[in-house]
């Protein structure tokens, strides 16, 4: 069986989960039709590949069977057909028993987990990507001082604002998006995550319970499952988050006056106290 090494390699390669970088599926498949996180994506891909191996093996066996039937007693052709059937069966068995094989070699190979990122409610993908303080707009150091930040704290707040939104008060996040509904969850200067934080209505001063506008949530790095259940409240929360003064005041409160920036993903670049 001169091709058994190739068959063995292909079967093992296809049966071992590989790293994937896209979470939103271009072609929906699986029981849900979408992946909620990287682990879910890889598991769904693994299941798809195992199914594909079964189909390919069945086709190979049928083709080899037809070659055997058409061999008309030719020993060489019968040998080729037998080899094809054998290789297909070996590949199929390896694919179907891959979990058992990997678990026997090293149980950790069959366990795929990603640590939860606790407290992460923001993203910096929509901002400038750097922490240089804004020199214009509502997130300048001077304007932040007038809204209650101290000198050093205003410098840090201006840097976080730049990295999160580029100083754009109405900016919706390009990455914080509910699945499967597709609703954006983070808005404004400091990219507040509405599935995790209440906002203050700038017109009435009333507290808006923004998380209650969603089913599921809160949206996190590893769990994107949420959908809007109250469109009116969702719209009110967006308007509040896009109000510059409201957003800045909320950031000042959450950051303990600008002294703790660990809630913001952009702080991984800025390195401010958390």
Automatic annotation (TrEMBL):
Stored InterPro entries: T4SS_pilin
Signal peptide start-end: 1-22
Keyword flag Transmembrane: yes
Pfam families assigned: T4SS_pilin
Transmembrane segments: 38-63, 84-102
Keywords: Membrane, Signal, Transmembrane, Transmembrane helix
Protein name: Uncharacterized protein
